[in-house]
Fold each of these.
Amino acid sequence: MHDPSSMVTLKTCCYKLNIDGAALHNSGLAGGGRVIRNYNDGFVAPFAKDFGFVSNNFAEFQALEEGILLAIQKGCFPIQIEGDSSLLVDAIENQRRAPWRLQMIVDNCRARLSPHRWSIAHILHKANMVIDAITKR
């Protein structure tokens, strides 16, 4: 479980992971994107991927899982994660249970993050425009 006392703040954070997922008509053709930036706001790893025909929520959660895997691969910790899905943020923080189809992704994300310093925050959609543009390409 995430220890709030080890939260990463912007002042001490070395990396930031922004994630976003989107689907046409909610259960249609979907994709997700993630971008990792360093402390100078330089791009470390922008990426977008098609997820097939899934829901908006699945695309959001899948983008997070793949973003975490990328951060682990590149050694980008400590990290601050930002996304515009309150369901996703609340589920990762264990404040709300995710729908059963998404709970396995939540559990995987928590397990992968557990050895690292990290934090997660909900941001407004308009504050997530860089990754939103990558996702919708």
Note: DSSP finds four helices and five strands in the chain.
Amino acid sequence: MVDLVSFWTSSQSSLFFKSSYLQPGVPLIYWITTPIFFQQHLQGKERKKWEMKCLLNFLEAFLFKDEVAFEERTYEGGKFATVELTGKPFDEAINEAVLKLLKYVGGSNDQGAGMGMMAPVCTTVFPEDDGSLKHKVKVLLRIPSQFQANPPTPTDESIQIEEREEITVCSTQFGGYAKEADYVTYAAKLTSALGDKDTYHKDFYFCNGYDPPMKPYGRRNEVWFLKK
């Protein structure tokens, strides 16, 4: 039995962290009453810092909700476990692929090795002309460093081990439990922010999730455009 918690170790490799204290689906009253409760225990400068932080979170969530911040980032190459699925909607396909990869890193391999879970889970998607996603995904998970030289062979034949080169991406980040619609929305925002620059691939992009499903708040998701 795979312990999903112990196999998921979040990698905070990002140079840019966009605050996501306000999460979709959580009543606004929670975000009002919680700061009030906690600030009663703060005094002086600490209380003022807390109040300013709450104000900035409010402004970010409600006044600047249509803005998008982004950065350019480079990731080293290496060996990845990959699963390719076609004919299924994004949300269904990614759930199936991630489960396969979790089983692989949890010990379903020729060495019976529990490798640990790297982050993010990176999914290659292929947009239609209207921005919606084709029913085709390729989900990638980096092999942990101690297994890079000799990755265990998956017992599931649908999982392939690939050597991938270093990449440079333009990345934007958002919170919440990300679905297809969220990735499509932020991909459109990133496209708008970048303008007509022909320096990034437009026939595919990457959807990334960093957190296990049992983490309800402070979640991190990213859209990456690959630089040519």
Note: The first strand starts at residue 71 and ends at 75.
